[in-house]
Design brief:
mainly beta, 14% strand
């Protein structure tokens, strides 16, 4: 049985009520007998992905449904550079070798 939340327009009293789907919504505040309104909330269950519609279910003819094959060699792409772009690229300098660590101050190469 669903729980509905109500709020009074006049006194601001907020309360919950267990009600059947077939019951009429409440109309009066139990505190001041003023008009109330039902507060709507987002559903707690969200269905995502395939399989939730009758058209997504498995066909009785499973041979008709085939999985697409992918060619891994065809899908791999190598980055390409134009000759003009290659000429404008500067080479990365080689890392310099450290002569001392500088952390301990003794001039060691640790």
């Amino acid at each position: 049985m669903p729980t509905y939340e109500y709020k009074c327009d006049k006194c601001g009293h907020q309360f919950e009520k267990f009600q059947s789907f077939h019951e009429e919504p409440l109309k009066h505040c139990p505190n001041c007998n003023s008009s109330i309104r039902k507060i709507l909330h987002a559903p707690s269950v969200v269905f995502k992905g395939s399989g939730w519609y009758s058209t997504d279910s498995k066909s009785s003819n499973s041979a008709a449904i085939t999985k697409p094959t992918t060619d891994t060699a065809a899908t791999k792409t190598e980055p390409t550079t134009t000759p003009a772009a290659a000429a404008t690229q500067t080479p990365t300098p080689a890392p310099q070798e450290k002569t001392s660590c500088g952390g301990c101050g003794s001039g060691c190469t640790c």
